[in-house]
Design goal:
Blueprint: E1 2-4, E2 17-21, H1 38-42, H2 44-52, E3 56-60, H3 77-87, E4 91-93, H4 100-107, E5 114-116, H5 131-138, E6 143-146, E7 171-173, H6 175-189, E8 195-199, H7 208-214, E9 220-223, H8 228-234, H9 249-262, E10 265-267, E11 271-275, E12 284-288, E13 297-301, H10 303-313, E14 318-322, H11 335-346, E15 350-353, H12 357-365, E16 373-374, H13 378-385, H14 391-394, E17 397-399
Parallel strand pairs: 2-3, 2-6, 3-5, 4-5, 6-7, 8-9, 8-14, 9-10, 14-15, 15-16
Antiparallel strand pairs: 1-17, 11-12, 11-13
Helix pairs in contact: 8-9, 10-11, 11-12
């Protein structure tokens, strides 16, 4: 049986250098200010543990999706400053990834010091799983630790190719990565029942495999957000100009049919907040899902849907939520998602929230402290639920003796 190599399995030699791949892909406003530092705070236990072993640390992460090398708005410098405050220690910052500045600062790194490389994606080889980039990064350290769950579903140089350059005694998963995997596995294998899955977001296509994999495991399934309209259309409803993936109508109908066969109750919105355009000054109306006028589109679930979904959640013992209920980025279409967050936070269930937009909703609603576990990775979380093997995790497995 394969088990993941834990950071606690490694015997770090004092004075060694440790490369920690983190996920510092934090949201920022237009002025470059960090609006949510949850991912930075989540890496602190692993960083402190390695420092306690008497090692020095090279931190690495990506931020956003830069196109051609350095872009000021994607610099990790604000992250280094925030981490410095959180740890109350200096973070040495390299202005490049494998250039002269990084090499010089790694060479001069003293016992117990922490440094951070510039955004890994400023190097094109990162997203191409380039072995040359991986080789250059591996030269920086004696040990490798991956604590970046949010990118483990990607075969990138800093999470995949680099691991081939360390043996099992010198590479491991950090505390956050292990926690994420254990939560996802327990959720699928041993949920307390009733188990309710809440899915939302814009598209069915991104969640199709997860829905298919979840159906035999859950007792109830709530479908909201833009993806709900493909299901409503498959049931014969008139959805006006609402978001529709026409090529997935048959798949949506099959999921509804399979749910009936398995005895899984599937709940869709019964009313929506509709508008003719997605804008702050557009007129809105509350209409049932059977009465969306032509030329109008549903942009959030309505108050009756909120009451229905709250009732569905009332006896849940386990709740997994991935995807907002509407276009929550605009205040007038955010109420459904915010109220869903309150309902989940107030429940007595074990509550697990998939990362990305859903985590942002929970933060915005002020419910983060009431949620059992908020995943730092939306895509990676979904792929675990889908039953897929994550490339960044597979390379950290060993056979149990």
């Amino acid at each position: 049986m394969s088990v993941i190599i834990s950071i606690k399995d490694i015997e770090f030699k004092a004075g060694s250098k440790v490369f920690i791949r983190c996920d510092f892909n934090t949201p920022m406003d237009e002025f470059g200010n960090i609006t949510d530092d949850r991912r930075i705070r989540s890496a602190i236990p692993t960083i402190k543990y390695v420092l306690d072993q008497g090692c020095s640390i090279i931190l690495a992460s990506h931020l956003g999706r830069p196109k051609n090398g350095f872009e000021d708005k994607f610099s990790l410098l604000p992250v280094a400053k925030r981490l410095s405050r959180l740890l109350d220690r200096e973070i040495i910052f390299a202005s490049d990834v494998i250039g002269n500045d990084a090499k010089t600062k790694v060479a001069n790194l003293k016992h117990g010091e922490v440094m951070m490389l510039e955004n890994l994606r400023f190097e094109k080889g990162e997203t191409k799983d380039d072995e040359n980039l991986a080789s250059e990064l591996a030269k920086f350290s004696d040990y490798y630790v991956n604590d970046a769950f949010g990118v483990c579903h990607r075969a990138h140089a800093s999470v995949h190719a680099i691991t081939k350059l360390y043996d099992n005694e010198h590479k491991a998963a950090g505390f956050l990565l292990i926690k994420e995997i254990e939560f996802a596995q327990n959720l699928i294998k041993r949920p307390a029942r009733p188990f309710v899955a809440v899915t939302g977001g814009s598209k069915v296509s991104g969640k199709l495999q997860a829905l298919t994999n979840l159906l035999p495991r859950v007792d109830k399934l709530i479908i909201g957000g833009g993806m709900a309209f493909t299901f409503l259309k498959a049931m014969g409803e008139n959805i006006g100009n609402s978001l529709l993936e026409e090529e997935l109508l048959e798949e949506a109908a099959n999921i509804l049919k399979k749910g009936r066969e398995l005895g899984v109750k599937i709940y869709l919105p019964v009313d929506v907040v509709a508008a003719q355009t997605f804008s702050a000054d557009s007129a809105i109306k509350y209409v049932s899902t059977q009465e969306i006028p032509n030329g109008w589109m549903g942009l959030d679930i309505g108050p009756a849907s909120v009451r229905l979904f709250r009732e569905v959640l009332s006896d849940a013992q386990t709740i997994w939520w991935n995807g907002p209920m509407g276009v929550f980025e605009m205040d007038k279409f955010s109420k459904g998602s915010i109220k869903m967050s309150h309902a989940i936070a107030e429940s007595f269930a074990t509550t697990v929230v998939g990362g990305g937009d859903t985590a942002d909703v929970v933060e915005r609603a002020g419910d983060a402290d009431e949620i059992t576990f908020i995943s730092t990775g939306g895509g990676a979380s979904l792929e675990l639920i889908e039953g897929k093997e994550l490339p960044g995790v597979k390379v950290l497995l060993k056979e149990e003796e």
